[in-house]
């Protein structure tokens, strides 16, 4: 059974310009992710799916002798005209594998051990679930269109007593290639959720996210400082 990690890189990201390739704690988010994935023994191959010449050059120059390869993405699948469903189905169609592990660079704190644990858990699920996804706990007072979603304002609970709502953080997503194509999504009908901690859950989506993540990375990973009690 072939297990492949796919690292998606789109040239010219909109909210944070070139976030995957700009300097981050001395390297780039792409290199950070690839260095982590190389320490995941369960992976048979790692593919950088991209329309970026710069990303391709990084793979060629720094990872030529490893199990990392690149796959040039057609421009349509890197455009705003392409829906998320079209994109995921396409990734499944062009990736020769049995098990697909979606590993975006924007989750720089996911540990190799976490990838390994999730892959093993997925493989041991005995088809009880059709995918596995990392999630974060959401203990917030949520409203939609002027109405509360998860609590009664007339009997407001303490925040820790709110329902156990979780949100997808896309740090780790695992699905079979067949299901990826069928669902046109990395999430199926019966997902197995894995709760990961607050640091590993960090996803970079805005300039502020990028700044905070880099500061934390410098302290936690590079300087090995304790920043949370």
The count of β-strands is 11
Order of helices and strands: EEEHEHEHEHEEEEHEH
Largest sheet: 7 strands, mixed
pLDDT < 50 runs, ≥5 residues:
none
State the end-to-end CA separation.
42 Å
Q: How many individual helices?
A: 6
Structural class: alpha/beta
Task: Provide the residue-averaged pLDDT.
Answer: 93
Radius of gyration: 18 Å
How helix-rich are the residues, as a percent range?
25-40%
% residues in beta strands: 15-25%
Number of domains: 1
The CATH class, by name, is: Alpha Beta
Name the strands of the widest sheet in spatial order.
5-4-1-6-10-7-11
Tell me the CATH topology. Answer: Spore Coat Polysaccharide Biosynthesis Protein SpsA, Chain A
Spell out the blueprint of helices and strands.
Elements: E1 3-9, E2 23-24, E3 27-28, H1 29-37, E4 45-50, H2 53-62, E5 68-72, H3 84-94, E6 99-102, H4 112-123, E7 131-138, E8 143-144, E9 147-148, E10 165-176, H5 177-183, E11 191-195, H6 207-222
Parallel strand pairs: 1-4, 1-6, 4-5, 7-11
Antiparallel strand pairs: 2-3, 6-10, 7-10, 8-9
Helix pairs in contact: 3-5
């Amino acid at each position: 059974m072939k297990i492949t990690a796919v690292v998606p890189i789109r040239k010219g990201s909109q909210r944070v310009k070139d976030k995957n390739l700009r300097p981050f704690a001395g390297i780039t988010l792409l290199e950070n992710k690839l260095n982590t994935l190389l320490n995941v023994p369960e992976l048979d191959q790692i593919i950088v799916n991209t329309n970026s010449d710069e990303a391709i050059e990084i793979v060629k120059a720094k990872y030529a002798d490893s199990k990392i390869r690149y796959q040039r993405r057609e421009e349509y699948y890197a455009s705003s005209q392409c829906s998320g469903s079209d994109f995921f189905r396409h990734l499944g169609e062009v990736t020769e594998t049995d098990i697909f592990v979606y590993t975006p660079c924007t989750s720089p704190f996911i540990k190799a051990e976490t990838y390994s644990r999730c892959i093993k858990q997925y493989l041991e699920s005995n088809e009880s679930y059709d995918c596995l996804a990392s999630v974060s706990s959401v203990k917030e007072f949520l409203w939609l269109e002027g109405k509360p979603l998860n609590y009664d304002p007339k009997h407001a609970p303490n925040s820790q007593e709110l329902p156990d709502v979780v949100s997808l953080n896309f740090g780790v997503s695992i699905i079979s290639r067949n299901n990826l194509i069928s669902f046109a999504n990395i999430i199926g009908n019966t997902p197995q959720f894995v709760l990961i901690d607050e640091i590993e859950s960090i996803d970079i989506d805005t300039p502020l996210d990028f700044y905070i993540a880099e500061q934390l990375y410098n302290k936690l990973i590079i300087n090995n400082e304790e920043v949370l009690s």
